[in-house]
Design a protein that fits this description.
This protein has helices at 24-28, 55-59, 82-94, 181-194, 229-234, 261-267, 287-300, 317-325, 346-351, 356-369, 387-395, 405-410, 433-436, 441-466, 471-474, 488-494; strands at 10-14, 34-37, 42-45, 65-69, 99-100, 115-117, 138-140, 148-149, 155-156, 163-165, 169-171, 198-199, 216-220, 237-241, 253-254, 275-276, 307-312, 331-335, 344-345, 377-381, 400-403, 481-483, 497-498. The chain starts with 9 loop residues before the first strand and ends with a strand. It is of the alpha/beta class and 501 residues long. It folds into two domains: 10-96, 2-Layer Sandwich (Alpha-Beta Plaits); 138-469, TIM Barrel. Helix 5 links the parallel strand 13 (216-220) and strand 14 (237-241). 30% of the residues lie in helices and 16% in strands. An eight-stranded parallel sheet has the order 11-21-20-18-17-14-13-12. A three-stranded mixed sheet has the order 6-22-23. Strands 1-4 form a two-stranded antiparallel sheet.
């Protein structure tokens, strides 16, 4: 029989001259990497269990630990990498589908990093955001309405329902179950303080969080977990999840081990049962079917809430978005292939979908060509990493962006990409009470407020440098961007000129 043993990917390096055998690392590691050996009187480590989450490194009082990438090497081969070989061994041993967490880690182009922002000089002077007003407030919803007046000539309000954001950012969908109660509380409280919105994901809304309804987007996915009339009425908007960037064409799956206590109650399914969302909505096989659900949700909420349709960024995304805009939806959310997730088949995560930059530009251009851009707002997501990414996304046509992985990083995530195991040492992607309590929701909310406030200030600085004082004037303004190191076809799809032109 072949050997199934695979050398550990990471190694725990312990400085024995610094280690005081306090056993903090042992207490902090949910993966049971560390242990005390009474025979030698020293701490030991099982490298094979390490996921490189850095919890032990961060908590070690004497800085005696560090995690390093193993230098173990397979024989060099340009076609068969060490990771590919290791994955073959694992599947040959288990017969199972490889699962991964978070976003695509492959070395595909990051177009944000190949786009540069224009700046004003003489004829169009820059604006000082410290001394002059800068508007980053954003409204999401249909804008294409005719002006109506009453008998006295006063304008009659007839604008469809809108989401008002103090800044062009929202927290993206992360379900209760995939992330902890304390993580959800952090997102909800931060959204309320910032004057923006957070998204429940497809796991329903815990009854404790109904108080944040004015800052909540409730999601309806194919599994319909936790969906009922009070849930729909609780949020400020409703999002129909057709797909997500990390796993286009694939449904959701929350293992039964995570369906415990309030998660079972919130999702309205028995404890211990797997929460499996089908790949398709079994009542949606056309744009006409989607339109029926859009208007069913609007009817159920008396046309008081905008409806969002979330789709993954795929090759025909522009045509899909055109159909959605005509379905009656108020907002389209597009999720690129670097979007995070609690669990996805590795092959799907790493090979299916397209970058958000190309998808966003294609959708905005298509809707403008068809004269229906104002029929919908666009939210872009899928690895928005900084304020400059946001500025570039808006210049490519987004009205606002979804923040997911960056929000988790602000909460303490170290991107170890083992969320699907349910042993998150930072209290985020776990339901184990002793781990959940490691995340203080008050501290988490404050860190999120700090992050997005800092990004909003940076957006104002960049807008001022461009000579723009309103986020609305930046939307779709591709003249503010220039490409570097891009092919003619990439520049054509993005709709930007090369640097120097």
């Amino acid at each position: 029989m072949p050997m199934d043993y695979v050398y550990p990917e990471y190694e725990v390096v312990r400085n024995l001259s610094r280690c005081i055998n306090c056993r903090v690392c042992e207490q902090q590691c949910a993966n049971q990497v560390h242990a005390f050996d009474p025979k030698t009187g020293q701490m030991t480590a099982d490298d094979a269990k390490c996921v490189n989450c850095h919890r032990c490194v961060a908590m070690c009082p004497t800085h005696a630990l560090k995690i390093v990438k193993s230098d173990h090497a397979f024989k060099e081969n340009g076609n068969w990498s060490a990771q590919t070989i290791t994955e073959v061994y694992r599947q040959a041993s288990s017969g199972g589908v490889l699962l991964s967490s978070m976003g695509n880690p492959k070395q595909y182009p990051v177009y944000w990093d190949k786009l540069l922002i224009n700046a004003s000089q003489v004829t169009n002077p820059s604006i000082d955001p410290l001394r002059e007003p800068m508007e980053t407030k954003t409204f999401l919803g249909k804008k294409r309405v005719s002006i109506k007046r009453d008998a006295q000539g006063n304008i009659t309000p007839n604008l469809p329902p809108q989401l008002e954001l103090s800044m062009p950012m929202l927290f993206s969908a992360m379900s209760y179950g995939s992330i902890s109660y304390n993580a959800h509380a952090s997102l909800a409280r931060a959204a309320q303080q910032l004057g923006i919105y957070y998204n429940t994901g497809e796991g329903g809304l815990h009854e404790d969080f109904y108080q944040y309804g004015k800052n909540t987007i409730v999601q309806v996915a194919s599994g319909r977990f936790g969906v009922h009339k009070d849930y729909l009425e609780a949020g400020a908007a409703i999002e129909i999840k057709m797909g997500q960037g990390a796993k286009p064409g694939i449904g959701g799956h929350l293992p039964g081990a995570k369906i415990v206590g309030d998660i079972s109650k919130t999702r309205m399914i028995p404890e211990g049962s797997d929460a499996i969302s089908p790949a398709p909505h079994h009542d949606i096989y056309s744009i006409e079917d989607l339109r029926q659900l859009v208007y069913s949700l609007k009817e159920a909420t008396e046309y008081q809430k905008p409806v969002i349709v979330k789709i993954a960024a795929v090759h025909n995304v522009a045509a899909i978005a055109s159909g959605i805009a005509r379905s009656g939806a108020d907002i389209i959310a597009i999720d690129g292939f670097r979007g995070g997730t609690g669990a996805a088949p590795t092959r799907i995560r790493d090979n299916v979908g397209i970058p958000i930059e190309l998808a966003l530009a294609a959708v905005d251009a298509r809707l403008r060509e068809e004269g229906i851009r104002d029929e919908v707002s666009i939210i872009a997501g899928g690895s928005i990493r900084s304020s400059s990414d946001i500025v570039k996304a808006i210049a490519l046509g987004a009205d606002a962006v979804y923040i997911g992985t960056a929000a988790l990083l602000a909460l303490g995530c170290h991107l170890c990409r083992s969320c699907h195991g349910g042993k998150c040492n930072w209290g985020i992607a776990t339901q184990r009470p002793e781990l959940v309590k490691r995340l203080d929701p008050d501290v988490g909310a404050q860190r999120l407020v700090h992050l997005l406030s800092a990004w909003n200030n940076e957006i104002k600085e960049m807008m001022g440098g461009m000579g723009i004082n309103s986020i609305e004037a930046l939307r779709g303004n591709r003249l503010m961007l220039r490409g570097v190191g891009l092919t003619d076809k990439e520049l054509e799809i993005l709709g930007v000129l090369h640097a120097g032109e």
